[in-house]
Amino acid sequence: MRLLFAEDEEDLNRILTAKLKEEGYSVDSCLNGRDALDCLEAAPYDGAVLDVMMPSLDGFALLKRMREKGIRTPVLFLTARDSTEDKVRGLDLGAADYMVKPFSLAELMARVRALTRQSAGVSSSTLTAADLTLDTASHRVTRAGKLIDLSAKEYALLSYMLHHKNSVLTRQQIEDHIWNFDYEGGTNVVDVYISYLRKKIDDGHPARLIRTVRGIGYRLSDEAPEGGSP
User: What Cα–Cα distance (Å) separates residue 18 from each residue in 14, 15, 25, 130, 182?
Assistant: First the structure.
């Protein structure tokens, strides 16, 4: 899942960006509201974590501009502004959540998970397809009860596909949500990681969950195939 993180305090920006990446998110970070708006206009995000008191464009103004432009990315405000009036203003502007500094890192990660579930229309932290289970809180992945060890990028890919289970995802959609602006890899990166994931998820099981949709992309499904490519 791809996140935008906008925070003008450089040390906090660096620390939280690293933590979010460690949790398996693809993260673009910026230090002011103007750059944040440019990012939001240029790429799809599953969630945005925004400070309120940022230079160029404050968080409230940024969210108002987002909604005016039709950008529906769910927003979590992370800010030192703790008045009831500020909280009400942020939520009334369309934020999904409002969190005050100082904060618990564990609570922030839980709220970010809830934010990305909202984006995908998922209500539970446990994602399943047939006998495959992924727990977004613990990052534990199993199939038929057997623990599966995934790299950070494999985990991110599987999580994204499970959040959109039974939907056909184009290669471009997958790339946009799993890799950020810093990525400089090859053009077949999605196919490569799908291959890695299939070896760990599907090999040795009679039912293949990751299906190729010819000419379009891929679908993770626990529904019976209708013929064609597995």
Answer: 6, 5, 10, 33, 14
Integer Cα distance of 198 and 187 in angstroms: 19
pTM over cut 0.90: no
Beta bridge partners of 127: 134
Coil, strand or helix at 152: helix
Query: How far is Cα 112 from Cα 145, in angstroms, rounded to an integer?
Result: 27
Per-residue pLDDT of the chain (230 residues; tens, 9 = 90+): 899 999 999 999 999 999 999 988 999 999 999 999 999 999 999 999 999 999 999 999 999 999 999 999 999 999 999 999 999 999 999 999 999 999 999 999 999 999 998 877 776 789 999 999 999 889 999 999 999 999 999 999 999 999 999 999 999 999 988 888 877 666 789 999 999 999 999 999 988 999 999 989 999 998 755 544 44
Rg of the chain taking only CA atoms, in angstroms:
18
Alpha-carbon span 229 to 216, nearest angstrom: 12
Rounded distance, CA 118 to CA 121, Å?
5
Residue type, 5: F
Domains of the chain: 2-120 (3.40.50.2300), 126-220 (1.10.10.10)
- Return the DSSP state at 224: P
Query: How many residues in total does the chain contain?
Result: 230
